Amino acid sequence: DIQMTQSPSSLSASVGDRVTITCRASQGIRNDLNWYQQKPGKAPKRLIYAASSLQSGVPTRFSGSGSGTEFTLTISSLQPEDFATYYCLQQNGNFAYSFGQGTKLET
Amino acid sequence: QVQLVQSGAEVKKPGSSVKVSCKASGGTFSSYIISWVRQAPGQGLEWMGRIIPVLGTVNYGQKFQGRVTITADKSTTTAYMEMSSLRSEDTAVYFCNFESISLDFWGQGTVVTVSS
Question: With bands split at pLDDT 50, 70 and 90, how would you rate the model's confidence at A105?
């Protein structure tokens, strides 16, 4: 299986900050990567698909970039409702999918 | 818009099996890739496997190969995940996920507790 290394594992930030989370794939996955937000006790919510496409209804302060082995999720100006845990998921069609370890975004 | 309703919580003995269902309403069942994801208490998300109903193909994560079976019944628009030889480490919330290129839907989660 492809391994996803996500960093940092936790991040302390304040409202209004610009935040960046990174995922690295153990081999090239083109742009087959999604980003999810999860709040305690809830199912994940997809924010970004195909590395950089914004899911409908998701605020434009969220953006994704990258291809191949390195990907980033950026929140341009952190809002109170953005404190949550974020995960990347690689979806390379030839292999099983795999999540990154998660990034807990805290105030 | 697809609504997904999962079956209720389960308590199982080590060595037994569990089958979790995910009933879909709305949308076109065969248009989606259906995945199962689990989350152990206080841990991250773990991808288990997927089925593509229109193709009939199934893929599993290496860790789950041989112990998990994912199926989909188009006639009842229900997906299933069955896990055998349960152990305490399988205690988790199990989620179903229906996705297409631009759409993404999740079930509410099913708690499976494995305890003697």
Answer: very high
CB atoms B61 and A50 under 8 Å: no
- Nearest-angstrom CA–CA distance, B103 and B101: 6
How far apart (Å, rounded) are the C-alpha atoms in residues A14 and B44? Answer: 23
* Residues facing B87 on adjacent strands: none
> Residue A88 — very low, low, confident or very high, per pLDDT cuts 50/70/90?
very high
Q: Is the pLDDT of residue B106 over 80?
A: yes
- 3-state SS, residue B63: coil
* Chain B interface, best mutation among A2, A49, A58, A101, by max B CB count within 10 A: A49
Distances, alpha carbon B39 to alpha carbons A50, B43, B96, in Å: 23, 6, 12
Q: A78 vs chain B: nearest CA distance in angstroms?
A: 22
B99, A55: Cβ pair inside 8 Å?
Answer: no
Which residues touch A94 (CB under 8 Å, ≥6 apart)? none
CA-based nearest residue to B35, from B18, B52, B23? B52
Q: What is the dihedral of CA A54, A56, A61, A64, to 10 degrees?
A: -10
Q: A7: helix, coil or strand?
A: strand
pLDDT one-digit tens code per residue, B46-87: 999 999 988 889 999 999 999 999 999 999 999 999 999 999
